[in-house]
Amino acid sequence: MPYMLPAIVALLSIICISGVLTGSFSTEYPRSYTTIDMKEYLADRSPLIGQSFIPWPLLDGRELNIQYKDLSMEYDPRLLPALWLGEVLDFIKEGKPIESLELPFKWVSALDLQSALQATGIASGEDCIVFQSSLGLKQAEGICELIELPDGLPNYRIMGPTDEPLSEQARTYLGANYLLHTLKIPKRAVFLGAGLQKDILLAVPLVSDTNGQYYEKSDIISLVKRGNGKQQILLSGQALRVRKSSNAIFDHIRLPNAPKNSNLSASEFQVPSIADLDSTLRDNIESAHPEQKYFHEASLFGSGKGFHYDWRFFKTSNYSPYERTAILQRLTRAWLRFTKEIGLRAWLAHGTLLGWYWNGLNMPWDEDLDVQITMKGLVDLAINYNQSVVIDLTDNEPTGHMYFVDVNPHFLQRERGNGANVIDARFIDMSSGLYVDITGLAVSDDLEAVQNSPGSKDQSRLHKIFDPDYEETAMLFDFVEGLRESTERRLRELETEQWNAGLLYNCKDDHFFLLEELEPEMTYFEGEEAIVPSKYMKILNREYFRGTRALQHQDWWFSQAFGLWLPREDCDKSVPGCKKEDWILEEMYTRPYRHSPKNRTIDGRGVPKVDPWMLGRNGRLSAMSLG
């Protein structure tokens, strides 16, 4: 292929040093950002902030302004989605049937793998065991395989996950290597906000690009070659053009399945027979090892933070508080928009529901989101969207970050088992590894096991469904003769009656709920439409002791004046609100979409947190304009 000159391939390929680690990685992370950086960004945005620069070697002899050459070679999460939308627009312009469109995909182009793989201190070597040991893998037989690749590329292929605690650098390398060499490509790209009303989506199949080696960004090269020859491309502009052309692709656009506020029915919680599923999903389920853990996290040496990140997409756990909450807010909004556009009724659960209760925001110490769905919703998600990448175009300033929909093939197994597969699905931010934990609720055989575990937390939660004062009553068991037996017998009869009627459901982590508690109530969370269970107070009170009353949690306290949870080290409790600028700005920016337990209305969507990548990009553009 004459267009793919050696220089281009060299510049656009993944570059890393193969061999055995003889020392530590030296990965530099960008500076930490705060709410003050967001303020400065909003006040002084570069006029070029929306632009994605085409890599300069692909400009076919045309000169790019020298100060933007380096910038054009940096990873930009918006570039590939913008080029994909260009393909959609070309199909429309040429009158081709949109249903025949397929988009090229390579992990090396979709994500920033180079920063993880370009590690210093790796020498050449031919022994996988030594390589594994150098990464800190002590019992990782079968994790690694030696492969033959050109010089300058990793000559070890990571075959699968390990749950051993590792360093952050080893974790990032492990995940990036697995993506580069092993993980299958997603099945489809799902563009949120493809219609004029921004409430419908476009789903397009993805195919593996075969124009070059898998470590080359040949898909980018091909897409640019077929493009309009411009030096820059705007994802927001491409999204607007697709929306204006939505009538031409209407038959290929997916509409919401059902209104989210209709009543739930008991049939939605029944577990389907595997024979009722389509052949692809059936094969996926039957090929899964029954006792093998499906989702794996990025376990780290000396830290529990890694358990909140998917191991494949892990980058770092060293985010500043602003960066982590900004990413989590972006993930939250994308998930809520996704479920709205596909008509999936998913309600907030556990700590996420508690965060909503206090002020309509994620708790500042939370690392992930928890949601629940019906069995029917889980099956629909698996059939229609499993292994999809989701791109959110609905923001005024879309970031291009992708989200991976991954459904656990063990989702039909409704008993807890060994506890390895209690999470049924995840919606994963592919830029960080942070995720939404998705658990389905169904009628299961776990009821008897929980009933027969006296004194356990699971049994106490179950009993409190029918007797909110059960824990207080239990304190008298040793003092009142026959009280334990009569109480347990009464509650067991009530529970079994509802279970037999198909009205008592649980997730695989043995949290039980009645149908009447789960009726959907529309609300807002992080400024987006969301669903909570109508009996949220009853649910929260049995899951969290004083969770809806306590104004302190570890090193945080709730400020009634600010309507925020504030850290004690920054904000003195004796002062109403807080004098620190970061938190004054946080209060101001979240005010339009915060609410309180007594007033659930919000003033508007407000200004979302600016993505850390956008802050960094703006800083580099500003520095160039001054240089």
From TrEMBL:
Pfam families: LicD. Residues 339-544 form the LicD/FKTN/FKRP nucleotidyltransferase domain. Keywords: Membrane, Signal, Transmembrane, Transmembrane helix. GO terms for biological process: glycoprotein metabolic process. Residues 1-22 form the signal peptide. It is found in: Membrane. It is a single-pass membrane protein. The keyword Cell membrane does not apply. Transmembrane segments: none annotated. InterPro entries: FKTN/MNN4/W02B3.4-1 (IPR009644), LicD/FKTN/FKRP_NTP_transf (IPR007074). GO terms for cellular component: membrane. Coiled coil: none annotated. It comes from the Eukaryota. The keyword DNA-binding does not apply. This is LicD/FKTN/FKRP nucleotidyltransferase domain-containing protein. It comes from Candidozyma pseudohaemuli.
